[in-house]
Amino acid sequence: MNDSKVKGRLQDADVRVTNFEEVEFGYNDEEALQEASRCLQCVNPRCMKGCPVNIMIPEFIKGIKEGDLKKAYEVISRSSSLPAVCGRVCPQEKQCESMCVKGIKGEAISIGSLERYVADQAIINQFNSVVPAEKVGKKVAIVGSGPAGLTCAGDLAKAGYDVTIYEVLHKAGGVLTYGIPEFRLPKSIVQKEVDSLKKLGVEIKCDVPIGNALTIADLQQQYDAVFLGTGAGLPKFMGIPGEDANQVFSANEVLTRINLMGGYQEEAKTPIKKGKTAYVIGGGNVAMDAVRSLKRLGVDAHIMYRRSLEELPARKMEVEHAVDEGIVFDILKNPVEILTDDKNNVVGMKVVNMILGEAGEDGRRGVTEDPDSLHTVDCDMVIMALGTSPNHGALKDSDIALSDKGLIVVEGTKTSLDSVFAGGDAVTGAATVILAMEAGKKAAKEIMESLS
Ligand code: FAD
Ligand code: SF4
Ligand code: SF4
């Protein structure tokens, strides 16, 4: 029995750092069939326990094995409205694939790559997933068009509800559009998913800041229910001297400018003044996305992370891709001051080395500064990728209950306000696409129950 997975093909590292095209090519028909054939079609499929939206994994893989991709797509669509996205960006190695029985003695089935294959084939062949039910005569407003809002909208529209999404940015998709770079998630794929929602009758109103143009109270009056999927887009900073210098950005800003506004092009309305050497501070997926984007702009791009490589919170695969692309990892280091010239432009950083300590209760090893290690590094750009928290502009003038950490408090998905529901990063803090989708699904169900 062959226990090795069919490896996906990638663009060569030295070529891909010169473009923003997708790094992974995705399985072709032959590779998908070969990988699907490894699946044991377990009667009690452990893999499904690892999928937050409970996709019938063996059933869709069976569809691939039998050459019935339409059936495979229908099976996935019953549980997920964004399969082409999840197949690409879900942390599968920690979810469905981590539970696959084949992983006990060999390599787990590449469930994510198979899901992506089916979803891409569905786009190419224009399979129609679901026909909406008859109209039920109820209206729901969704605030935010990220995966939580899109999923909630999709499930409600399929059930015959009139759904309007309000989005503050000029394009729908949330982090899928403005955060995750093209080379991991092509924007045409996100647009196709958004278009399929429109086909279900969902109306999307962009450039509408809720809390400003309209308040939650207005939406409560105009709609039967409201769902808040406003995400966690507020970046954190370190609070060190020099952080207000000209070339210090949050990773979110750099990624938004590159992904949404084409800011890397000289003719862009808000171009990025890119430097020669950039340090991205942090070690998560957002840091990897920022540093790899900068590398593609021709910048000498470094990660500076205060723990060791083993502790990097980013997906292993993304770290491997970053290493192959020539990203420099300055690990066990932390900046303590950003140095500037007389025009407040970044010229370098004062940095200390860090020493790893024992693991704390959360299993992560603590770090302390090495007092004799203060040194300087030269750079002309510093990017902070230290995590984000919810930006509650939408909640202005509402007395919705928030936790000590500023997260929207929910029971199920119901907030403290009448007929207002919430889910995704605005409730959990920065998490994952699939968890936001799960919350959107749950909210749709609870909204329908409350209105029936
Ligand atoms: P969001 O996607 O943040 O969407 C919220 C939307 O609400 C936004 O479009 C915002 O503009 C809009 N909004 C906010 N306030 C208002 C307002 N007042 N009025 C109207 N609209 C408003 N997760 C993964 O699973 N895999 C990955 O590989 C991955 N990579 C990531 C890379 C980056 C750079 C980032 C930033 C995150 C990444 N994540 C990843 C996390 C994932 O994208 C988020 O957990 C997910 O998008 C959260 O979904 P959401 O719908 O709750 O919020
Ligand atoms: Fe796995 Fe994510 Fe697909 Fe679920 S949605 S099967 S967790 S890749
Ligand atoms: Fe197939 Fe693995 Fe799921 Fe079993 S656990 S059905 S082998 S994907």
Write a concise keyword list for the protein shown above:
Fumarate Reductase Iron-sulfur Protein, Chain B, domain 2, 5-stranded parallel beta sheet, FAD/NAD(P)-binding domain, alpha/beta, 452 residues, binds iron/sulfur cluster, binds flavin-adenine dinucleotide
Number of domains: 3
Strand order of the largest sheet: 3-2-1-4-16
Task: Round the mean pLDDT to the nearest integer and report it.
Answer: 93
Structural class: alpha/beta
Hetero compounds: flavin-adenine dinucleotide, iron/sulfur cluster
CATH class type of the largest domain? Alpha Beta
Largest sheet: 5 strands, parallel
Question: What would you report as the Rg, rounded to the nearest angstrom?
Answer: 23 Å
Number of strands: 16
Shape: globular
Total helical elements:
17
Instruction: Give the end-to-end Cα distance, rounded to a whole number of Å.
Output: 52 Å
Low-pLDDT windows of residues = none
CATH homologous superfamily designation of the largest domain: FAD/NAD(P)-binding domain
Give the % helix.
25-40%
- Determine the CATH topology of the largest domain: FAD/NAD(P)-binding domain
The oligomeric status of these chains comes to single chain
Q: What report would you give on this structure?
A:
This protein has helices spanning 13-16, 29-37, 46-49, 57-65, 69-79, 83-89, 96-99, 111-125, 147-158, 175-178, 187-199, 216-222, 251-259, 285-296, 316-324, 425-428, 433-451; strands at 139-143, 162-166, 203-205, 225-228, 234-235, 248-250, 277-281, 300-305, 328-331, 333-340, 346-359, 365-369, 375-378, 381-384, 388-389, 420-422. It has 452 residues and is of the alpha/beta class. It folds into 3 domains: 13-125, Fumarate Reductase Iron-sulfur Protein, Chain B, domain 2 (Orthogonal Bundle), CATH 1.10.1060; 139-233 and 390-451, FAD/NAD(P)-binding domain, CATH 3.50.50; 235-387, FAD/NAD(P)-binding domain, CATH 3.50.50. Strands 3-2-1-4-16 form a 5-stranded parallel β-sheet, sandwiched between helices. Helix 2 crosses helix 4 (57-65), helix 5 (69-79) packs across helix 8 and helix 13 (251-259) crosses helix 14. The termini are far apart. The model has no long low-confidence stretch (mean pLDDT 93). The structure holds flavin-adenine dinucleotide and iron/sulfur cluster (2 copies).
